[in-house]
Amino acid sequence: MKILVGVKRVIDYEVKIRVKTDETGVETSNVKMSMNPFDEIAVEEAIRLKEAGGADEIIVVSMGEAKCQETLRTALAMGADRAIHVTTDAELQPLAVAKGFAALAKREDVNLVLLGKQAIDDDNNQSAQMLAGLLHWPQGTFASKLEFGEGKLTIIREVDGGSETLELDLPAVVSVDLRLNEPRYPTLPNIMRAKKKSLEALSPEDLSIDIAPRLKVIKVTAPPKRKAGIKLETAAELVDRLHNEAKVI
Ligand code: AMP
């Protein structure tokens, strides 16, 4: 069994996001970048599957600028076998990402594609769903548990008020949620070993995909600043303010 895993380079989750002054997007220069946290979970799950004897090869894929290769090296240091970098400086919308993964899923003849539930930079939550649509493969989104059987995959996914269990025929596309596992940190020896693992660079043209954006971002604005709070001395004062000023009680 071969697994393709999506690894997106995004602004680190601990960084305070700043909107560009011209409102065309968010500031990414001189900002710490990391692997999308949901993708770390996807890589971890693929590695656990391989360790349990359920997978033969894990191929990690990142689409975007040259520095995505650093993120791919991290995934290789965690335990992925090889990496593919689809190199482009162009803006990538989920349809373009889905086309890239669809082309690679066929080229590499994989049995499973694991993506994150969403990229924490643009919060699209669309790539996995579009990919399953393009490939006409079954999809399981927001997986919080995966179990493999003969040619089948059982996933448990969280839904409003409970959980849902789905059985998918392979090949399939799965997007992973936070509760699935806790990703490992790469060890120093594995970081060194990862430098020797294969990292193939391809262009969108090599994959014969049209990555042109289909949506236009009009503007990006920061949320309105919150007013400073006040401290009240007594509960009676709070009730009075809620009643007479906020008029909510
Ligand atoms: P999104 O639909 O943009 O929220 O992204 C969902 C998932 O698709 C991410 O967690 C990644 O696994 C994958 N993905 C999105 N964009 C990229 C990219 N540029 N390179 C690699 N994987 C990506």
What does this structure look like?
There is one protein chain. With 249 residues, the chain is an alpha/beta fold. It has a single domain (2-214), classed as 3-Layer(aba) Sandwich (Rossmann fold). Helix content is 27%, strand content 27%. It is built from six helices and eleven strands. It has a nine-stranded mixed β-sheet with strand order 9-8-7-10-6-1-4-5-11, with helices on both faces. Helix 2 (68-78) links the parallel strand 4 (57-64) and strand 5 (82-87). Helix 2 (68-78) crosses helix 5 (188-194) and helix 3 crosses helix 4. The longest helix is centred in the first third of the chain and has 15 residues, at 37-51. The protein is globular and about 65 Å long. The mean pLDDT is 95. Adenosine monophosphate (AMP) is lined by residues 6-8, 36, 38-39, 61-64, 92, 94, 97, 115-116, 118-119, 122, 124-128.
CATH superfamily: HUPs
Number of helices: 6
The appropriate CATH architecture is 3-Layer(aba) Sandwich
The distinct ligands, each listed once, are:
adenosine monophosphate
Task: Summarize the amount of helix as a percent range.
Answer: 25-40%
Low-confidence stretches: none
Shape summary: globular
CATH topology: Rossmann fold
Strand order of the largest sheet: 9-8-7-10-6-1-4-5-11
Short summary of the structure?
The protein contains six helices and eleven strands. By secondary structure, the protein is α/β, with parallel strands linked by helices.
Give keywords.
249 residues; alpha/beta; Rossmann fold; 6 helices; binds adenosine monophosphate
Show the helix and strand layout.
Layout: E1 2-6, E2 9-11, E3 33-35, H1 37-51, E4 57-64, H2 68-78, E5 82-87, H3 94-107, E6 112-116, H4 127-135, E7 139-149, E8 152-159, E9 162-169, E10 172-176, H5 188-194, E11 199-202, H6 235-244
Parallel strand pairs: 1-4, 1-6, 4-5, 5-11, 6-10, 7-10
Antiparallel strand pairs: 2-3, 7-8, 8-9
Helix pairs in contact: 2-5, 3-4
Bound molecules: adenosine monophosphate.
Residues 6-8, 36, 38-39, 61-64, 92, 94, 97, 115-116, 118-119, 122, 124-128 line the site of adenosine monophosphate (AMP).
